[in-house]
Specification:
The chain is 5% helix and 49% strand. With 80 residues, it is mostly beta strands. The strands form 2 sheets. A 5-stranded antiparallel β-sheet has the order 6-5-4-1-7. A two-stranded antiparallel ribbon has the order 2-3. β2 (20-22) and β3 form a beta hairpin.
Amino acid sequence: MSYNKPIFIVDKFYRVKQTFKSGSSNFQLDEVLVFVKDYYSIYDSSFVYEFRDTTAGETKYWWLRHDDSSSRWEDFFEML
């Protein structure tokens, strides 16, 4: 995957479409999160997407391996 354009939009809300774990973060079905920022981890060869649960004050990270398709985000998140 090449990093051509952002997947998520800063300050937009996203609903979690399924319960899953990514790295040390646990995502719950129907949880609503706001997207904060993204960055690339050269050590893990992965893009990291940072979300914030505004009600619980918790930060969560979704990891996408650099060789995975960027369209995978749609399996996990829905923009509101």
